[in-house]
Amino acid sequence: MLESVRKFLSGKTVIVVAILLAIPFIFLGSTSLGTTFSSYGTVNGETVTQLDINLATSQVSQRLQSIYGEEFSLEDLDEEVSVNLIKNEVINQKTLLSQAKKMGLSTSEKTAKQEIINLSMFQGDQGFDQALFESTIRANGFSPEEYIRLVQESMSLDRLVSAMGVAAFPIEQDMLSMAAMLETSRDINFIKIDKGALADSQKASLTEGQAFYDANPFLFLSQEKRDFSYIVLTLDAYKQQVNVPTGYIEQAYADYLDDLTGQLQNRISHLMIEKSNYDNTTEAKNRIEQIRADIQTGAVTFEDAVIASSDDLASKDSLGDLGLSAGDAFPEEFEIAIGRMSLNDLSDVIELEDSFHVLKLTETLKPEIKNLEDMSKQLREDLVEAEALALMQEDFLELESLVLAGVTLGELADTVESPIAVTGLQDSESIALDNFNNYSSTDLFNPKVLPNKIEIFEGDDSYAFVMLTQKLEPAVQPFVDVAEMAIQEVRAQKANEIIASVASDAEAMLAGAIALPELTGVSKETFKNVKRFSSLLPSEVISKTFESSVGSLVSSSAFNGDTYWAQSSNEVVPSAEDLGDSVEQYQGFYSEVLGQQFSGFIDQAFKKNQKVRLKNFTSN
């Protein structure tokens, strides 16, 4: 639940309040929470506002984009799912905030303002610039009061995470104790019954098998079988229908060359003089022309001139770099100038409404141009695939509408001139549709699949129209068909009776007071110096043995059905001196275990008595 709390496990969360300005707001309209409200209720007494909803929406969106890519949008999700994600984000953040206040870790408004004042992004020539601050945050959707409150909350959460991180530091003595526990060894004396081998060794007659069959008929039910008729549309089949027109490859290659022309990208840097910093426009222009002349004569480099004189604070630290453009990213005046420049050229002085600029072309990225021979195969394949996909989609949509209209499978087949395939009566393990893999046997054997009703399955590059034509319900199979199965069940039953007999005398057998029965699959052994993570015995057996006191009898079944009875003795617990440097190998493991335990504790503690009173939080 409290995802932000868990981050302390990998280090202290550093809250940079400036990052709040980088959150791309996704304001909610009728497709999300509907009407905009002044309040959405409370969580642990903390009021939930429209701003909280906007922030939660942006945070959820960013998190999903980090997983599924930048093209992902909350609108891709079912509306109820997206609303619940936003709701949970709000609850988590407000729960953390209330806990921070409860623990006395909240940040004062004065402290938050001091943090803002120290941010470089709000500094002017004389220090903190109130006008710059207000214009910047308002441009990003905040009012000054809202931004100050967000900084307060962010700093409070940082204090909470830091405090919990301190509480989770490993203690050396605890780590030594854990290492000693893991290095502790015991001798284990045990009886093992290999159930498979024991059962196979038991004698069972046909008469006994018949008696078991008569007493347990439902153990011998056949599987349900179904027969399907179907047609499949595949992309490969439609590719065979596509003919490449004469001259197409040559024209497509010409289009390819035209497209590459538009992919040429230029990177520029600029030096900017702001008109408002001078008494008049002429003075500002004279200043930038003098700087350009100094660069041209070699008196100063372009980069040094940017550092010394540019008024664009945003690009100054990157030596005026403005990034790449393919012809449409920069103002038209810039793009025209770039078109006349060669690499490392300077532009003439460019005048915009509020400023003057000198550009430098610093990089040109030209796409690789392949020749016609290299491109012809790709162009042909692209055409064939696109045309085949269009043809298949056209037929699919037509068949889909016919299915909705209630036509038969035969009529569908006639429409697309496709043969009807038949599976024959098959059980769920054997069923298969030729040339179509995007289904599961569960889909075909779903009780909702009805006879003579066409079901549609969609694959990545194929479609299947499937109709159930016959169904055989499970029935008790004749004894002659399951005789061997019945006899094997008798053997297993006899093996179970032997296991129960050994269980009652296991402790005496381990002590040697009663002899171990001489049966296939039954054995008795002793392993020395066994540790908790030893592979000598199944993990279930070792865990249960070490969880029990020395000398007590434990019984356990392994994942493969084998049964064990074990007693431990001669426990050796290493001292700190015995452990020596081997303690270090457990440090990472200990930290991971500690983190998991502490994270679980935090989740449970914070959720306890949680009071969520949200309103206006339903999808439309």
UniProtKB/TrEMBL annotation:
Q: Its principal location?
A: membrane
Q: Any idea where this protein resides?
A: Cell inner membrane
A single GO CC term for this protein reads: plasma membrane
For membrane topology, the record states: Single-pass type II membrane protein
Keywords tagged on the record:
Cell inner membrane, Cell membrane, Chaperone, Isomerase, Membrane, Rotamase, Transmembrane, Transmembrane helix
Q: Which Pfam families match?
A: Rotamase, SurA_N_3
Q: What is this protein called?
A: Periplasmic chaperone PpiD
- InterPro entries membership: PPIase_dom_sf, PPIase_PpiC, PpiD_chaperone, Trigger_fact/SurA_dom_sf
**Record family assignment:** Belongs to the PpiD chaperone family.
GO MF annotation terms:
peptidyl-prolyl cis-trans isomerase activity
Name all PpiC domain ranges: 263-363
